[in-house]
Amino acid sequence: MKRGHGIGFGKAILFNEHFVVYGIPSIVSAIGQHTVAKVEPYDKPGFTLLDKRPATPKYKEDKLEQQKDSFSLMFKKMGLDLSKNGVSITLDGNLYAASGIGASAASCVAVARALAEYYEMSLSDEQINEIAYEGEKGYHGTPSGVDNTASTYGGLIWFQKGDANVIDRITLANPVEIVIGNTGKVTDTKAAVDGVRQRKEQNPKKYQEVFDRAENIAYLAKRAFADRSYTDIGKLMNENHKLLQQIEVSSRELDFLVSIAREAGALGAKLTGGGLGGNMIALTPGKDVQNKVATAIEKEGFQTVKTIIGASREDVEY
Ligand code: PMV
User: Fold this and answer.
1) What is the structure's pLDDT at 63?
2) Which letter, b or e, does each residue of 277-313 get, where b requires 16 or more Cβ atoms within 10 Å of its Cβ?
3) Ligand 1 within 6 A of 273 CB?
């Protein structure tokens, strides 16, 4: 039977979510978890979806309409006509479908790759990234492109939105342990992004200062990665969290998990992704610190994922 399959990485934004929307550089990483998509023939027009991904309660229900829009946008971008022969799409893999860890981008990339294989289209990573970006619009409106870029290429990436996006690899000698803590709250990235835009328009001077500092932090973090100074990276993550608080995209739960992680020995911790709920990330090089931080968060009744930054395709079997 004709069949296509594809993979997309989960991601964690290490520096400058939200600021990235305005062209400030960001640093993003693929994590060790990924989504796998399978495409098979369907005996009706259009498409049918079987979503077997593990998920935060309510995530799939909340995102279903956006997910359908996203698929339609990708079919269109790929020039596919499903009006006679439809496709059946199955989503699976070990990436939790939750806000802030790139679940939507990972599924867009996985589906784009699976469709390309099914329809025997030979597409480059760059083309897959463009199709996934189109799919991301179904969820975000006008996304910066940072999520789908990490989901497509893997590894650790310097991303700057522009007329032509800057996508540079940052070399990591070895993948580094992190903990992702889930507030359990499903959030709407588009609403969070709109909120920042409104407040930025109302307080241009204050926001300009915060944005300037965010830009500076990105360059300092790039240098710290080159020096492999995880202590400095952690400190810069803490500072980045402060800036995200100042633009009002953190939440009580996120601040709580960030402080628990720091007390348990994380080198740094911050919210990751759209904020207002969703997930936070803690930098925890070494399995011991990673276990301590994850246990401390779980003790408070929150779910964690112990994973790595810098995951590449060689780290994944599917
Ligand atoms: O909420 P997530 O994980 O999809 O991350 C969104 C990142 C933002 O910077 C807030 C938005 C964007 O388009 O870059």
Assistant:
1) 87
2) bbbbbbbbbeeebbebbbebbeeeebbbbebbbbbee
3) yes
Is the Cβ atom of 146 under 6 angstroms away from ligand 1? yes
CA angle 74, 77, 79 (to 5 degrees): 110
Q: What's the whole-model pTM score?
A: 0.93
Question: How is residue 127 written in tokens?
Answer: 């083309």
Average pLDDT, stretch 151-156?
Answer: 95
The whole-number pLDDT of residue 316 equals: 64
Q: Are residues 109 and 247 in the same domain?
A: no
Report how far ligand 1's centroid is from the alpha carbon of 74 (Å): 19
Confidence of residue 162 (pLDDT cuts 50, 70, 90): very high
Structural domain tally of the chain? 2
Q: Are residues 52 and 138 in the same domain?
A: yes
Predicted local distance difference test score (pLDDT) of residue 117? 97
pLDDT digits (tens, 9 = 90+) for 267-276: 999 999 999 9
* Tens digit of each residue's pLDDT (9 = 90 or more) over 235-277: 999 999 999 999 999 999 999 999 999 999 999 999 999 999 9
Ligand 1 atom at minimum distance from 278 CA: 1
Q: Are residues 112 and 32 in the same domain?
A: yes
Q: Is 17 in the pocket of ligand 1 (CB under 6 A)?
A: yes
Is the CB–ligand 1 distance for residue 143 below 6 Å? yes
Q: Do 154 and 226 fall within a single domain?
A: no
Please report where in the chains the tokens 């996120």 appear, as a residue.
254
Please indicate whether residue 102, judged by its CB atom, sits closer than 6 Å to ligand 1.
yes
* CATH number of the structural domain spanning residue 198: 3.30.70.890
Ligand 1 atom closest to 104 (CA): 4
Whether residues 100 and 197 share a domain: the answer is: no
Cβ(181)–Cβ(290) below 8 Å? no
Does one domain contain both 48 and 122? yes
- For 126, the domain range is 4-170
Is residue 34 located within the same domain as residue 156? Answer: yes
Residues whose CB falls within 8 Å of the CB of residue 198, separated by 6 or more in sequence, listed in order: none
- Residue 318 falls within a domain, yes or no? no
